[in-house]
Amino acid sequence: MQNEASFNSTREYDPNALLRVSESRVAYYTVKRIIDFGLAFILLILLFPVMLLTAIANLIYSPGLIFFKQERVGVTGVH
């Protein structure tokens, strides 16, 4: 008795079957990408004032540079 999930040969199946995408899936991913970029752009515009205020507060209340620079020595002594 053979299990329904097993098959005898890969020749029975189209090797390119996994590469095919239906037109509706292409349209879905295109619309999804447009919506994702649109929402990201809108949120970026809406959150820009908050990010700007956070950066200004960081400059005022935090001493030193915003980005920390440090020289490191590797295992072989290379800087």
In brief, what are we looking at here?
This protein is mostly helical and 79 residues long. 49% of the residues lie in helices and 0% in strands.
Q: Helical amount among residues, as a percent range?
A: 40-55%
Rg, alpha carbons: 27 Å
Estimate what percentage of residues fall within beta strands: under 5%
Shape call:
flat
List segments where confidence is low: pLDDT < 50 over at least 5 consecutive residues: none
Main sheet attributes: strand count, strand direction, barrel closure: none
Number of strands: 0
What would the average pLDDT be, to the nearest integer? Answer: 82
> Whole-Å distance between the termini?
67 Å
Indicate the multimeric state.
single chain
What is the N-to-C order of secondary-structure elements (H for helix, E for strand)? H
**Number of continuous helical runs:** 1
Provide the structure class: mainly alpha
